[in-house]
């Protein structure tokens, strides 16, 4: 027995050292998004929102006895197959608790099996594809702090009808996200005993929307519902700008175009289009103390001077809130074990966030933190900045 003591003692020291290292190691969150392709600036907006929240948390002393938060980023270019290749390496990152997704929904939807088999918490601060959160996996490891397609469709159609439009044409991006919106728009219209005047598809990365717009016009539509990302939406808008001012159909657009990628690709006359975009948040004219404090932190970290320079504000604010909700769940769980954090997310109490005050952000039957009550319309001002038309 005496000869075993040194080895046992060494093992005890090793275990103690591992425990200390575990208790002091950073807590890691991931961001898995398009950071370099057509929606790169949307990915950057999410990144900045996460960085703002993480900076606040670390300045306040970190989590679980002083552990700092860190963020690791993987760029899938918006391509689901690339996301599939990267996900195992990302999920195996030491001390990783959860992942923020990017603007695109299909990279999440096509990897739901892996996500749930490996108990990987995924929170969407932008992707609105219904299947990101609404699926048959249980317990559900996906959450959303953003709009969703079904509620978006109801909201946009209601806004168009309230302004007197009766024949609604639809243009959709030809992707999994576009198909999600086809279902949402069709069902929302059917509930009103209506059908689309015309439904057109635009391929990913198409630079000319003339064919789709002309088909909608021939069908006699008096307004256009648009669900496409920056490049494809810009192609539709450029085609619309070739019409005389009195022949340009009003557009009611999904929030996927709200990043600066769309502004840059649409041209300088964007404010001359009757284009209304769904948003959940703006720093501009926001009287809230939290909004002012976060905007000041944004300027200090990223070198901006005015709220108009904060691009993709909804994505930034939703990512900021998503990180804070994860932090509250880690604190509630007193652990970084993913299953315990997932359970804690469903049992959070009130939280005064940036986008809204959350009474109970998630429940076992509801993994959507936002609702149509948080939706607002915005238009582009002459400087290409989205400004809310509703308070």
Bulk shape: globular
CATH architecture of the largest domain: 3-Layer(aba) Sandwich
Structural class: alpha/beta
Radius of gyration: 23 Å
CATH level 3 topology of the largest domain: Rossmann fold
Along the chain, the helix and strand elements come as HEHEHEHHEEHEHEHEHEHEHHHEEEE
User: CATH homologous superfamily of the largest domain?
Assistant: Response regulator
Count of beta strands: 14
DSSP helical segment count: 13
- Helicity, as a percent range: 40-55%
Q: How many structural domains does the protein architecture include?
A: 2
What's the rounded overall pLDDT mean?
92
CATH class of the largest domain: Alpha Beta
Short description:
The protein is of the alpha/beta class. It has helices spanning 5-24, 40-59, 80-91, 106-109, 112-117, 149-162, 176-190, 210-218, 230-241, 260-266, 289-302, 313-333, 338-345; strands at residues 27-33, 69-75, 96-101, 121-124, 142-144, 168-173, 198-202, 223-227, 251-253, 275-279, 351-352, 357-358, 376-380, 386-388. The chain has two domains: 8-147 and 289-373, Response regulator (Rossmann fold, 3-Layer(aba) Sandwich); 150-279, Response regulator (Rossmann fold), CATH 3.40.50.2300.
Break the fold down into its secondary structure elements and pairings.
Layout: H1 5-24, E1 27-33, H2 40-59, E2 69-75, H3 80-91, E3 96-101, H4 106-109, H5 112-117, E4 121-124, E5 142-144, H6 149-162, E6 168-173, H7 176-190, E7 198-202, H8 210-218, E8 223-227, H9 230-241, E9 251-253, H10 260-266, E10 275-279, H11 289-302, H12 313-333, H13 338-345, E11 351-352, E12 357-358, E13 376-380, E14 386-388
Parallel strand pairs: 1-2, 1-3, 3-4, 4-5, 6-7, 6-8, 8-9, 9-10
Antiparallel strand pairs: 10-13, 11-12, 13-14
Helix pairs in contact: 2-12, 6-7, 9-10, 12-13
């Amino acid at each position: 027995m005496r000869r075993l003591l040194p080895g046992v003692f060494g093992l005890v020291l090793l275990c103690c050292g591992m425990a200390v290292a575990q208790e002091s190691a950073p807590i890691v969150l991931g961001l898995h998004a398009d950071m370099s392709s057509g929606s790169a600036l949307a990915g950057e907006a999410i990144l900045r929102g996460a960085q703002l929240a993480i900076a606040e948390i670390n300045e306040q002393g970190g989590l679980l006895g002083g552990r700092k938060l860190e963020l690791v980023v993987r760029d899938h270019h918006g391509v689901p197959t690339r996301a599939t290749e990267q996900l195992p390496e990302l999920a195996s990152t030491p001390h990783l608790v959860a992942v923020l997704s990017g603007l695109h929904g299909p990279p999440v939807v096509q990897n739901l099996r892996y996500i749930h088999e490996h108990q990987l918490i995924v929170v969407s601060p932008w992707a609105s594809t219904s299947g990101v959160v609404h699926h048959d996996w249980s317990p559900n490891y996906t959450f959303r702090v953003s709009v969703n397609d079904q509620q978006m469709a109801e909201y946009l159609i209601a806004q168009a009808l309230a302004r007197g439009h009766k024949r609604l044409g639809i243009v959709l991006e030809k992707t999994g996200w576009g198909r999600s919106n086809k279902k949402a728009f069709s069902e929302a219209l059917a509930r009103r005993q209506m059908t689309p005047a015309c439904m057109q598809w635009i391929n990913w990365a198409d630079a000319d929307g003339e064919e789709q717009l002309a088909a909608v016009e021939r069908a006699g539509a008096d307004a256009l519902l648009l669900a496409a990302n920056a490049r494809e939406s810009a192609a539709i808008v450029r085609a619309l700008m070739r019409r005389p001012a009195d022949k340009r159909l009003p557009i009611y657009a999904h929030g996927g175009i709200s990043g600066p990628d769309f502004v840059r690709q649409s041209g300088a006359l964007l404010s001359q289009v009757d284009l209304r975009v769904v948003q959940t948040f703006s720093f501009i004219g926001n009287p809230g103390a939290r909004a002012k404090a976060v905007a000041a932190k944004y300027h200090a970290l990223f070198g901006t001077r005015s709220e108009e320079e904060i691009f993709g504000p909804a994505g930034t604010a939703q990512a900021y809130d998503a990180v804070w909700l994860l932090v509250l769940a880690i604190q509630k769980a007193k652990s970084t074990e993913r299953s315990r954090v997932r359970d804690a997310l469903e049992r959070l109490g009130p939280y005064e966030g940036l986008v809204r005050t959350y009474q109970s952000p998630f429940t076992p039957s509801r993994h959507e933190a936002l609702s149509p009550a948080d939706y607002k319309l915005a238009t582009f001002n002459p400087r290409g900045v989205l400004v809310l038309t509703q308070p």
